[in-house]
Structure formats: structure tokens, C-alpha cells
Amino acid sequence: MEHFQQTGFPLCVKLGTISADSKADVFSYAEDDMVEDPLLEQHLAHWGIKVSQMEKTEKTIAEMEIDQNMSFDWSRIQEKDKVLIPAYGPGYTGLQNLGNSCYMASVMQTIFSLPEFQERYFSHADEEFRNAANPTQDFTVQMCKLARGLLSGLYSMEPKEPKEGERPPPTGVAPKMFKSVIGKGHAEFSTTRQQDVLDFFQHLLEVIKKEEHRKSQGKNDPSSVFQFQIEDRTLCTSSGKVRYVTRSDNVLSLPIPLDKAVNKEEVRKYELDQQAKEEEQKRIKKEAEEKGIPVPKVEATKEEPVRRRIPLLACLESFAEPEEIPGFYSSAINAKTLGVRTSKLATFPKYLVLHMRRFTLSDDWTPKKLDVFLEVPDELNLEFLRGHGLQPNEEPLPDDKPITKQKIEINEEIVGQLTSMGFPRERCVKAVHHTKNAGVEPAMNWIMEHMDDPDIDSPMDLGGEKKEDVNEEAIMMITSMGFPRQKAIKALKATGDNVERATDWIFSHMDDDAMDVEEPKQQVPSALGDGPARYRLKAFISHIGTSTASGHYVCHIQKGGKWLLFNDKKVAFSDDPPKEMGYLYLYERS
Predict the structure, then answer these.
(1) Of 134, 269, 331, 414, which has the fewest CB atoms closer than 10 Å, so is most exposed?
(2) Is 499 domain-assigned?
(3) How far is residue 468's CA from residue 475's CA, in Å, rounded to a whole number?
């Protein structure tokens, strides 16, 4: 029965009418009239529900406050109390809800409002359509298809009175195939359950990055506009020495410091008032029970709840506050001590996504959503968050002792047989390692299964002592023909030290200018980009509900100087965007 309840159909419709293992029956009855069960009480008793012994209870003040908050959230975020003007045309197309797919709709509407994603997936859609071998399973093709649907305007036409025999123009896009492809193989996104919008956003960027590296070595990767580096500075309090470490991220996750509320006194008075009402309700209930009379009904208040108002700037400052690390091992004193870590941004991306940690754990370790308003400015200057690395007056901590990896044993005989078949050596080494030297056939099957891996040809760290793995005799034979040493080394590595095949390989790669470079250049992560730390609010995604497992997501996006509300397939101009209730904020460098 739990399975039926998850489908969204009322339990009373099924009892006594269908078998508990027939999901098809549920859907066949869904559109019929409500079925009355004359033996409902007995059937409910089978599940431990004794209707005759149940009695209605009055809601507590706290419960009514939660209901009031929820009602306010739904109305405020979706702007239900306002008459919104619908928007039509290119870029104003909605996405039909496929069943708990609002998290996906909010993210896709947001990223396709950015020129980098429009250029990659809309402007080059025809090219991708022509070159796709299997369009239904090609992620890039499905992204282009969705971009065409959202940005062409073909599915967002102002409704007109249709003439006799005419069909009304289509409204909104139903991205069923895209949802299937993006969720393929994922434990959560392949289901119809509600998901966290942050998790989906990062999953989407990961898939985009992987696909673009597979197709173009990352040259056309639009997800790089979100990438930035965080600089972590750790101070050893015993020696005064420091260590700087950088890490990459695509979202800046911010705590919400409740003690930084700007309306503390107002909140305190409201909480005391609610507490007094709760005590009064308990007193009235107790007196009524003692007198044996019905408990007077408490009317729900229409008063708007008072919530803490936290400046977004306070959340940013909280992110940069020093954090103590007890038990930090210092290489300066070779012992554990107290460390102090401070985080700042080493680079600033073109688009900065801020994640507000509205979901947290209560004292009893149950998840809860912080019921707060955020004071969100349209413009931000984050220069105070810029990291500057090691300063002249700072001394770095000594390098930690290097950890020597255990050498990975590779059967060179199997590698040689595979390279003789024409497979590059790096692929063969990885295949032999992952198949545990089981033989040529298992290794060859591994290669065929992992041909599309973006790192299939990247060198593998075999551990042990580092030494140049080259055949000097073979190198001498090739260099005697007039080819540079570096080109000879690379050719031999690509052909399994086969001199004859290495020579042919060089002739087929004569246009490879990088072959003539004596020392290969290390790639610098320039794609991360950097620039001024001034930003302007471009979009935000809001969550309605008390749990990420339920509720609803909508997004507000600024286009042409005007704010728009994207609520599944509904798109309308926003009179008063609820910036204070956002979950994810997208800022664009100004």
C-alpha cells in the first residue's frame, strides 16, 4: 500500500476495489468516479486504523503557525495575491511538470537565460542534430532540443480564439526525453521523486563537463562560467606558520547566522506572544477536560508571522570567519595543535551561485528548514572575500612527508599484446590494471567499454619510484632518422615501443606542433577565469515547503531589466519578486 500512496492516489479509492499488487489497476481507476467502500471500517481495521475510536483534535498554536507560514510561502513566492501579466515569445516558454520535476524546470530555465548556454546549445543545435549517431540517448542533442523548445518561441504563443477546426497553439515544453537522459543511471534523478535543486544543478554541470571533454576536450564547455577556486589558509597557532590550499567549486555555500538578525527584538516579542498563546490554550483545554465540557475551538490567526531578517552580507562574512581546528597536525612542530582555518576566494567566476543553507538539523538530529527572510541586495561588492595567497610577513609550514604509493604491478606481456593490436599504451595499461592482469580478452573488453571515458588516454600513476619509462635503443634508432627525441618518445609510447609502427605514427602526426616541444607544457586552469568582484543579481530559485523531499520550486529571472516568474509551464512578469525567500541566487559579474 505504501507503493500506492507514493503514486499520489488517495488510499480510500483503492481499498476493497483492486489487488494490492496491481499498479495498472490504480491508474485505470484514477480517472473514474470515487468508489465507495461499504466495508471501509473493516478494511481500515485490517491496517490497524480503528475509525470508531478516533476523534478529532484541535490544532495547537504551533501547528496553526506552521499552516499559516506554509500558506504565506505559497502565496508570496508564487505571487498569488497579484494579477500577473503572462509573457510570451522566445525565452518565455514554460516547462510542463512531469511529476515532481519543478526542481529540474527551475534549473534549466535559469541556465538557458545565460548567453553561454544559448550559444552552445541553441546556436549550434542544427550541427548537433546532423552529427548525432543516436539522438535519443545523446545528452548534447537533448540539451539542444530543450534549448530550441525554450528559446525559439514556437511553444510560447499568445492564445487566440481558434477558428473552427484549428488546434490551439502549443503551450510549454514537456522535456520527457531530456529527463530520461539526464537521470540515466542516477539513483535519484532517474525517479519521479522530488529532489534538491542544488544537487541537480551540480549533477547537470558534471554531466555537461564530462560530455564536452569527451567531444571537444572541454573547448566548448559552458559550465566553466560557474567554476572558481576557494583559498583555504590554515594557521598553526603554536608556530605561527601557515599553509595555503586551493580547491575548485561551482557553488558558494553560505551559512545563515541567526544571531545576525536585524530585527531581534521584534522576533523576541513575537515568540513570547506565541508562547503565551500556547500556554493559554493548554490552560483552557485542561479546564474544559476537568469540567467535562467540549474544548472551545481556537480560531487560527491571520497575523503574518514575524521571521528573522538576515542580511546576505552577514552570511558572506560568516563564510569568511576563522574556524578553529582542534587536533590539527602541524609539520612545523611534528605534533597536534590548534589550527585556525580561514576561507576566501582565489578567483571570481563570471556567474557566482550562492547556496543558502536553509536546511539544517535540529537538536534531535531531524532535518528542518530555517524560517528566515534574507535581505538580498541587487548589487554585491565581494572584494573583501578575495584571497591573496602567502604574504611577505608569513612563513609557510614545512611540506608534509610525501606518501609513497605502493607500486602497481602491470603484466607487460599483456600490455604488449594489446598495443600490437593498435590500442594506445595508456589505455592498455589501465585495462590490464582494472582487470587485475586477467588476460588479453578481459582487458580488451574493458577498453571497448571505456572508449568514451574523458581520461582514457591520460597517464596512470603506477606508484613506486618515478623513472623515465623509455626504450633508449628504440629512441636512438628513430632519432637517427632525423626526428626529435621528444617526438620519438611520444611515438614509442603510443605504439608500445614498436619502432616500425612508431615511425608510421610520426608520419601520420606531422602536423602535431606540440610534438616538437622538448618539455610538455602543463595546462593552467585558465578556464576558471577571474575578474572584478562586483556582481549584480540575475536570478534566484525559491523552495516552498519544509523539506527538500516535498514542496515546490519556482525561479525568478531578470530579462531586459524586468523580472519574470517561471512556475512550471506558467511564465509571467513579476511585480514584486520574493528575493528574501531564495534558496539559490545567481549573480552575474557587473
Answers:
(1) 134
(2) yes
(3) 13
Domain, as residue range, for 30: 2-54
* 449 neighbors 431 (Cβ within 8 angstroms): no
CA atoms lying within 13 Å on the CB side of residue 19: 4
pLDDT in tens, 95-144: 999 989 999 999 999 999 999 999 999 998 898 898 888 889 999 999 99
Does residue 24 sit within a domain?
yes
Distance CA 418, CA 425 (A): 8
CATH for 418: 1.10.8.10
CA torsion, points 320, 326, 327, 331, in degrees to nearest 10? 40
Three-class secondary structure of residue 188 per DSSP: coil
Whole-model pTM: value is: 0.68
| pLDDT digits 0-9 by tens, 400-450 | 444 444 556 788 888 888 877 878 888 888 888 888 888 888 888 888 888
- 257: CB partners within 8 A, 6+ apart: 310, 314, 315, 318
Alpha helices in 17-101 (DSSP H): 23-30, 40-46, 61-77
| Side-chain-side CA neighbours of residue 172 (13 Å) | 17
588/350 Cα distance (integer angstroms) = 6
Residues 225 and 539: their CA atoms lie apart, in Å, by 15
Q: What residues have CB less than 8 Å from 356, skipping those under 6 apart?
A: 254, 256, 315, 374, 582, 583, 584, 585
Nearest-angstrom CA–CA distance, 574 and 333: 59
Q: Which residues are catalytic?
A: 102, 552
Query: Half-sphere exposure of residue 322, counting CA atoms within 13 Å on the CB side?
Result: 10
Closest CA to 64 of 300, 304, 306: 300
User: What is the domain count for the chain?
Assistant: 2
Q: What is the pLDDT of residues 330-364, one digit of tens each?
A: 889 988 899 999 999 999 999 999 999 998 877 77
